[in-house]
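Quick board copy: two proteins, each given as sequence then C-alpha cells.
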Amino acid sequence: MAPAGNGAVAAEPFRDDSVTPAVVGFLHRPASATGDGLVLAHGAGSNANAPLLIALAEVFAAQGVIVLRCNLPYRQARSYGPPGPGDAERDRKGLKNALGALRRMAAGHIFLGGHSYGGRQSTMLCAEEPEPAQGLLLMSYPLHPPRKPEQLRTQHFPVLKTPGLFIHGTRDPFASSEEIRTALALIPARTRLVEIEGAGHDLGFEKKNASRELPERILREFREFFPEAAGRQL
C-alpha cells in the first residue's frame, strides 16, 4: 500500500442473493486497486454503518484496498437488537459468503475482521475453515461478558492459525489488557496487540468528537503487521 492519503472512496450498496445467507452491505471500490480486499463486520448492537467501520473502510480504500462492510445475517433479519443464541453459525456462513463475494473482485490477499461480535465470529470462522482469509483485523475482541471474567470466549484460540492484529481499549469492560495478552498466548499464529489508551469497548469512536486519528493508526499498524499487503504499491 502507498502512504495514507486524504482521498475518500465513495461507498456503493452491495447485495449478492446468489448465496444463502445473502451478502448485504456496502462496497468501497478504489479507482486504483492493489488487488487486496478486506471484509468488515459490525458488533452485536450495530450494523454495517457503524462509524468506525465506515472510517476504516475509507482509509483502506484510499490506499487501493477494496473493502466490503457487510450486515451479518442476524442484522439482515432484524433491524435492531443483538444476535440470538442460534444466530452465530449462520452469521459465520454469512462472513464466508462475503469473503467469497470479495474474492471474485480482489485477486490479491483477502483479510477479514470487524468490531466485537463481528470480530469474534471472524476468528471462529478462521478456526473452523482452512484459510478463509490471509489475516484478521480485530477491534475490541469481546473476551468475556463484562464482570464475568470466568466466561472466556477462547475455546477456539488453540486451533486458530490465521495471523491476527488485535486493537484493544485499555478501559474495555470485555477484557483487561492483561487478560487479552494471556488469551493471545493461546493462539499458535502470529498476533499483535495494539492498545488504545483510555478507550472503552467502542475505542472512543462513537462519540461526536471521536478522533479521526484512530483509523489512520490502525492502517499503520496493519501495514506493519501484514507486510505482504503493505508491500503492494499502487
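And the next:
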Amino acid sequence: MLVSEYYSVLGLPLNSSLEEIKKAYRNKARLYHPDINHSPDAKDKFIQATEAYDFLLANHEKGNLDDEDFFRIMEDWRKYRQDRSRQQAQYFARRSFISFKNSKYYKSTRILNASSAIFTLAVSITVLVFTIFGYILRLRNPAPGTENTTLFSFIILMTISTILVSVSIISLISILSANRKQRRKK
C-alpha cells in the first residue's frame, strides 16, 4: 500500500496532522469494529484502518522524504511492521469493542483531545485579557479621532473572545465528562 492509500483508508488528505490521524482512526475503529458493525467486510476494513494508523503514526515525521528513502521505508514497513500490525488488528477485532476501547492503543488517540481543548482555552483567555488591557491602554492614551472606532473594536473583540472562551469551556467540559464516564464504566 502507498502512503496516499493509507491516508485514503482513514479518509484523510495527505499531510494531515497527527491529531487528525488519531481522530480519523478513532472514528474508523468505532465504525468498523466487528463487535459493532456486523457487515461481512467490517473486520477487513477495521484491520486496514488499524494498519494505516500504525504506519502513519510510525512514519508521520518522515512525510517529506525523497523517493528513494520513501521506498526504503515502505520496504522496511512491509517486512517488519505490516504483519505485526495486521496481527494486532485481528486481535483487536476479536475482542469486544468495550475492551478495545479501554485498551492503551485506543486511549492514545484521546490524549490529544484534552490537550488541544486546554490549549484552546488558554488562547481564548489570552485573547480576552489582551482585549481588555488593550482597551484600557487605548483609553489612557487615545489617538485623536479614534474614540468611536476604539469602542466599536472593543465590543467586537469582546464578543469574539467571549464566544471563544465559552466554546472552549464547553469543549473541555464535554471531554472531561466523557473521561469521567469512561472511568466509571471500568
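Board note added afterward: The chain has two domains: 3-107, 111-185.
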